[in-house]
Amino acid sequence: MRKSILISLIFPFIFQLVLYADVTADDYLPHLDNKYGKILLNMRWRYENVEQDGVKNAEAITIRTRLGYQTPVFFGFSGLAELEHTIPFNSGTYRSPGLNNALNRAVIADPRNTELNRAQLTYTGINNTTVILGRQRIKLDNVRFIGNVGWRQNEQTYDAVTIKNNSIKNLQLYYGYLKRVNRVFGRDAKPYRGLYYWNMDTHIVNIAYTPCRYARLVGYAYLTRVETRSARSNSNDTYGAYLSGKYPVAHITLSYRIEYATQKDNSKSPSGTSFDLDYYHFKLGGFCEKSKIDLGVGYEILEGNGTRGFSTPLATLHAFQGWADKFLATPANGMEDLYTWAGIRLPYKIMLKTVYHKFEAENSGANYGDEIDFLAIWKIDNHFKLLGKYAHYSKDDFGADTNKVIMELNFIY
């Protein structure tokens, strides 16, 4: 065990030594010209520590590797296959379904896993149209409703067919039929029903219109029908729209987002379940080109009826309601998240950011708690990136006080 942990700690520094030697990634990895296809390689070393009141501290040291190959285009067709492998070096010190059942530890959802991450056939033979069939990554808009949960080591993928068309100027049409979602808990979570994957009969439509460079109008319909019995409570029909964009004023670029969605039960929702819930999101920010400072404020509302809250079961949830991951499921009384952020871009491609959240129940007005987050990113070059995160959630009427620390090194080829 000690040897494995030592290897995992030394691993990223070996990359650093290679980096600062007089070589680049192209010198020690085979290079394929586009006419011969493309090698896909992504590696991520991560250390994550969670201190949560009521359970023992959790600590995870993991390495995730993705290796794949994308063929050149041949008569409009191209193929892609990618394997994904996650190694935990201290599996007894954190709880993750499919890895262990350490109920006395905090959860870190990065189990040991080996799987076919993507296997897709792409057709681009029709002008301005892309059709993808097979296991694929799907990320729509800000991933609030449909995402790949890219923060976790084992990403979420979809067995689906998707079609994107840009034939009409300034208009993008997107349709997808999702037959299965492969979730982040991995193959070993099979005994835990609904964690490994969900069978689905889901249609997603996303239509984006860009009338000018300052505005983008998007309408969407996500008809989520989950057929896996243990997960049918995630079924819903969601319809919504948002307006977003950026507008320059002197040396400041203002950004905005105004969004509304409504959500109802459907034929796959559990019997006797009926709900009609709304979603609102307002966001205003500003980036100063001279000082490289980014400031902003946002307000996100997910309604709750006392039995369930507005849900986004296919989202990249880590990106919302704080990085301590206390609200991956919307509470039954809903959520009001008033948040503000401040960031700065420094020389040498270093970025710092802090976010503050104030959480309250939408339905009852109860004070859930608040959270402060910190982020530091150093993009070393086109292949290497270092990242550090800290999240502190202070509870009032919901959950438990939680501290989370993450350090990771990313390598992309």
Tell me what you see in this structure:
It is a single chain. With 413 residues, the protein is mainly beta. Helix content is 6%, strand content 52%. The chain has helices spanning 2-20, 25-28; strands spanning 38-52, 58-70, 77-88, 113-123, 129-136, 157-165, 171-182, 197-212, 215-224, 236-249, 252-264, 276-288, 293-302, 335-346, 350-360, 367-379, 384-395, 402-412. The protein has an 18-stranded antiparallel β-barrel. A hairpin with a 6-residue loop joins strand 2 (58-70) and strand 3 (77-88). The chain is globular. 31% of the residues are buried. Residues 1-31 have low confidence and may be disordered.
Structure, briefly:
This protein has 413 residues and is mainly beta.
Q: Strand-residue fraction?
A: over 45%
Report the mean per-residue pLDDT as an integer.
90
Structural class: mainly beta
Radius of gyration, whole Å: 22 Å
Order of helical and strand elements: HHEEEEEEEEEEEEEEEEEE
Properties at a glance:
413 residues; mainly beta; 18-stranded antiparallel beta barrel; 2 helices; 18 strands; globular; disordered N terminus
